[in-house]
């Protein structure tokens, strides 16, 4: 049985998805200030590694960063509903910009919505 990672195109797919996402982040007035000027490329790589590992690809993320601990890693950022919505808007544009079967898109999007909701750490 193949993993979603393999079914949707492996590394090339996730590289495209994260590149499209960070192109949105780079111009978003809420998201862009969360990243140091020199960190977008590194952040994109970390997201790509994480998504690849989560969906059954290589364990590069864990080998380089340890356990994901997403809430802990994002605790230093002010993530309210506006930041959550901006993140989902940028990720929606990225997901819509890549080719994949509708059932895979639905599965991926369901996870991304759940993960984004879990990162909220500030009341509105």
TrEMBL record:
One of its GO terms (molecular function) is oxygen binding. SUPFAM superfamilies: Globin-like. Coiled coil: none annotated. It comes from the Bacteria. Keywords: Heme, Iron, Metal-binding, Transport. PANTHER family: TWO-ON-TWO HEMOGLOBIN-3. Belongs to the truncated hemoglobin family. Group II subfamily. This is Hemoglobin. It comes from Candidatus Planktophila vernalis. The lineage of its organism: Bacteria, Bacillati, Actinomycetota, Actinomycetes, Candidatus Nanopelagicales.
